[in-house]
Amino acid sequence: MTPRPKVAIFILNYNSSDFKSTVYKSIESALGINYPSLDVVVIDNASSDGSFEAIRDRFGKDVALIRLDRNYGYSGGNELGFERYDGERGSPDYAVFMNNDFTVTNRDFVKDLVGFLEHNEDVVLAQGFNLAGDGIHVDSAGYFVDCNLSVVGRYSGQKLVDCPQKSSYVTYASGSCFISKVKVIREVRGYFFEPRLFACWDESDLAFNMWSYGLKSIFIPTTVGIHHALKSFGSFPVLTEYLLIRNRYALRRHYLNGMIKVLSAPTFLTLSLPYRPLQGLKGRIITRAFVDAYLQHVCSSSIVGVYNPLIIVPRSLSYTTCSSFIPKKLRRKMLNRISNLTVSKDDLRASSRPFAVSF
């Protein structure tokens, strides 16, 4: 019998004492996954609240523990943790990156996703249904990015029972829990996450880079688990706001080209208006983030391929050219239409430009 591909699940921890019961459930659920060749790896970003010691005492014999010397954020923590694991235990065939506030409810999800990826060479990133805390509504089923760099969650907030059970290509998979092909990504890109991003848009950077080489991200209609979305990183709102804006526009500069960059110009121009510094703290954050996005080299230094990422381009030019100014009701209606899209292989083939989908 051919041995199953080796899979490692990486769970990043940082100062989680305030929600330690959720973290315990997350690790326990990963250990309960029904897959014969599986390692569970806990990476600690130099926690100072005793949460690392608590995890070590409770799970030390069952998981691989990696302790880093400082807080490297989501990007650096996962990347450095993977490199340490790779050096000590050898490279897995697949890596699952899972938040410490995510609980697996489908013990077979690894088998489901690995089975799909093994038969689809051009797909390197995948996720299933990640549910909200109530276990009824969808937290994420992959994400689309539109031509104005708005992020739209597929079926986010909708009841799982109302969602079609169809696969769909997506711009990127949710960082709360996704699976990746290790060998292909490391050969093409050299690493998973760019540490300089620190957090926010880091999984997008990975997916954008892979799409530029024609290597796709996909949603598979299998339920994976529950994302409790406790977000310990949310205790740093100023930093979060800064990183969201800086990294968003760094990605625009790095990956979008040709007509796609032209279509994203309205939002770009809106954020760059000169009165921003006069709008208080938020205005100063936006201005600083915007400037740094174009002065700092925070995106992948690897060579980018010839294709655009999967960018959703509506047919309506009024939406494309004036999206920052159209009424909220109309914009919400357009985003809802994007949220309900299913992008097939035929849609990609019929696209007027590489991996841009019009509707």
Q: Into which percent range does the helicity of residues fall?
A: 25-40%
**Radius of gyration, CA atoms, in whole angstroms:** 20 Å
Order of helices and strands: EHEHEHEEHEEEEEEHHEHHHHEHHHE
Question: Which class of secondary structure composition applies to the elements?
Answer: alpha/beta
In words, what does this structure look like?
The protein is of the alpha/beta class and 359 residues long. Helices cover 38% and strands 20% of the residues. The chain has 13 helices and 14 strands. Helix 7 packs parallel to helix 10. The model has no long low-confidence stretch (mean pLDDT 90).
Give the SSE map.
Elements: E1 7-13, H1 20-31, E2 38-44, H2 51-59, E3 64-67, H3 73-89, E4 94-99, E5 102-104, H4 109-118, E6 123-131, E7 138-140, E8 143-146, E9 151-153, E10 168-170, E11 177-181, H5 182-188, H6 202-211, E12 216-227, H7 237-255, H8 258-263, H9 265-271, H10 280-295, E13 311-313, H11 317-322, H12 328-339, H13 345-350, E14 356-358
Parallel strand pairs: 1-2, 1-4, 2-3, 6-12, 8-13, 13-14
Antiparallel strand pairs: 4-11, 5-12, 6-7, 6-11, 8-9, 10-12
List keywords for this structure.
single chain; alpha/beta; four-stranded mixed sheet; globular
Task: Give a quick summary of the entry.
This protein has helices at 20-31, 51-59, 73-89, 109-118, 182-188, 202-211, 237-255, 258-263, 265-271, 280-295, 317-322, 328-339, 345-350, and strands spanning 7-13, 38-44, 64-67, 94-99, 102-104, 123-131, 138-140, 143-146, 151-153, 168-170, 177-181, 216-227, 311-313, 356-358.
